[in-house]
Each structure stands twice: as structure tokens, then as C-alpha cells.
User: What shape does this take?
Amino acid sequence: MDSHQEIRSRPGNSGPRVAIVGAGVCGLAIGWRLAQAGARVEVFERGQAGHGATWASAGMLAAAAEAEPGEERLLEITRWSQGLWPDFARELEAASGRSVGYRDEGTLVVAPTRDDAARLRATYDYQNGLGLELDWLSPAEARRREPFLGPNLAAAVFSAADHQVDNRRLAEALRAAFLTAGGGLHEETEVTAIETAAGRATGLEVGNRRVAADAVVLAAGAWSAELPGLPEAARPPVRPVKGQALALAMDPEAPLLTHVLWAPGIYMVPRSEGSLIVGATVEEKGFDEKLTAGGIFALLEAAWRAVPAIEELAIDDMWVGFRPTSRDDAPILGPTPVEGLLLATGHHRNGILLAPATAHSLTRFILSGDLPAPARPFTLARFADTPALSAPFAGHAIGGR
Ligand code: FAD
Ligand code: GLY
Assistant: This one.
């Protein structure tokens, strides 16, 4: 991707003017869908498009394997988005002329010891109870799928529905599709304030420039709570949750793994061009960008226990990313008490998985004033302790002609 890009939206589009803060997977996917629908969309990104948490991600589309007790409501939207993914990927590839590296071999969760197997069984029973389709595997069945698994293996679970996408290719494809659809992209361009007047959003301040808009979408990832000018009533409770990860280099002709693999303390994601992503730490360290010996050691040790043959692989890359995490670890989507100011943030560990649902939900709300049912529990209103905030979302189309 080129940096220092300033590409203005195509004059042919005549729908509402929408200004989006942040060109991560959320901002780009929403921008693409809105521009396709004829809106005049400008996306502002202070760095390079797609180089925030979206770049740091592992690209797992893991609605089933990551389902945890207490997240039943989240499961409705994660499964919806997972179901949207195959068509979303096909359409995006056609629109951008680029592959997004979608792979559907499925996900394997392994338990090295009998204690691990007992924990895995409890999770499996819980997930089965939710109607998720998972298969319990013997060690021999697991090894048939992944011959390089380590010697300690008590049991495994296979999830056929949990696929993966190459998140970096995804970002590049979204950027290209957004531009092709007529969107305007402003990279290396920091939004310095959100502008409001008489209780509604009127646009953005970008340095000494004012950008007028009918709707403003705040999709600034882990930085979403920090935007100057953001009215307190619309401030999303979002914080950064640090993740360290690394990439090993496999022989693409003879990869050590073909499925996404979860083992105690790690996941491993094999890419078609030979990368093996190993992730990730989950750390409450604010915006601390340090790669640490302890973090990387823990990942490598856990990966080596699961697949000992990784010890021969070269380390290609290591990085830190910041998950945008809300108070209940679920996304914050749609309206705020400030008319015309919308949120698409707080996606925590699921922003790539939730991209199709996020794009569809925000586009529909902006164009028709309606949020799709699976997105309705995830407005800002759920955090409110004031009557103004706890009212259900305000449904009305924005600035359409
Ligand atoms: P970002 O991608 O961070 O984009 C926000 C953008 O806003 C940034 O580019 C930033 O520069 C820009 N911005 C901020 N402030 C301003 C401003 N004032 N002006 C202009 N621009 C601004 N999710 C999955 O679904 N599957 C996974 O396997 C997965 N693995 C992960 C592994 C790691 C290590 C991490 C860190 C995250 C992972 N996630 C995963 C989570 C996922 O990456 C995020 O939820 C998702 O990328 C969030 O996207 P976003 O667009 O909200 O944020
Ligand atoms: N979903 C994987 C992660 O956030 O690390």
C-alpha cells in the first residue's frame, strides 16, 4: 500500500455524506458497503489504511472455538457474521481483484494432558449445548488430521465451521474495493476533532480543515474513546488490550499444519504462502508497544509443546497490536445520543470475524434507520445509567436524498 495517499470520493455518488474516522477493517468495510450503495464516503486514517489492530490480527473466524460461557448473546452476531463470510470474501475478491486468503479447512483444539482434556470436555459440552457443531476426536483421529502434533495428546475437538482469512490481504482488498466503489481515502491524515452543534454531529476537524458530513462513524479501534470533541454521552468505553504475536516461516510445499490449531496458551494459523502465525498474548498494558522476552518466550514455548517440529523454523516477524476492547468484550455498534454520530468499535478479539456484520449493520442503519436484529443488543445504550442513553436506538435514515 502507498502511504501519503489522498484520494477523494467520486463525484458520481449522490447519497448521504459520511465521514469515517479510522481505516481499519471496520472503517474500510463500512466505507466499502456505503460507497457501493451510493453514499459519498470519506475515510480518514492517521497512518496507513489497515495497519492498526487489523494488521496485527491472526484472521481467525472463530465463532465456535472462541465461544465462552457468558457470551451467549455475542454468539448470535458472531455466528451471523461467520455465515456472511464466504459470500463477503467472494464479493470482495471480485470487487478488488485481490485474494483475501480465505481458507476453510477448519479448526482443531488440542488437549495435551488428561487435565486439559477434562477442561476441553467441559467447554465442548457447553458449546454443544449452544447448538455449535463440534466433533470430539481421539488422539489418533487428531493426528490423522495433523501429523506433526506433539507426543502429549489426550484429546481434541474439531470445528469445521471456524475458518480463517489473511487479515493483511483483507485490508488491502478492502482498501482497493472501497476506492473502486468511489470512496475517498485520506491516509496519514489525523482527525483532530469530532464536530457537533445543537446535539448532532456535523462533521470532522482535520488539522485546519473542516469536513462537513451528514453522518460521522467513529471506527478508530483502541483509540476510539480519545477523540477530541467527542461528547461525553457518546464516548465508547473502549480500552487497548495488548497482543504480541509472531510469524514463523514454513515450507509452503510441506507445511507443518493445515488447520488453525489451538493449544493451551496459544493458537497457530497456517497461511498459504508458508507463514505460521503464533498468537497471542492478552495484556492490560495500555498502549505499551514493547515486544517482551517473556511474551515471545511464552508463545514459542507453548507452540513448541504443541508442535515440536517448529523448532527448526525461522522467525520471520514479531509484532504488537491493540485490540479495541469494551467493558463487556463485545462490539459497540450503531447510534449514540448524539444524532448522526455512530459507533463501530470495541470488537476486541473478533473484529475480523465481525467485519461483514459490522459493515452490513452500519450501512443499513445509515441508509434506512434500522439495525439488523443480531446487532441491536450491541448499541452504546447497554452501558448507560442515564435515561437518555438507555433509550433504545433512535431509528431514522441519515441525510439521504
Ligand atoms: P484498527 O484496525 O485498529 O483500526 C483503527 C484505525 O483507526 C487505526 O488504523 C488507527 O490508526 C486509526 N485512528 C485512530 N485514531 C485516529 C484519528 N484520530 N484519526 C485518524 N485515524 C485514527 N480478530 C479476529 O476476528 N480474529 C483473530 O484471529 C484476531 N486475532 C487478533 C490477534 C491480535 C494479536 C490482535 C491484537 C487482535 C486480533 N483480533 C482478531 C482482533 C481484531 O484485529 C480487531 O478487533 C480489529 O482489527 C479491530 O478493527 P478496527 O477497525 O476497529 O481497529
Ligand atoms: N482472536 C484472537 C486474538 O485476539 O488474539
Observations:
- Residues 46 and 171 are 15 Å apart (CA to CA).
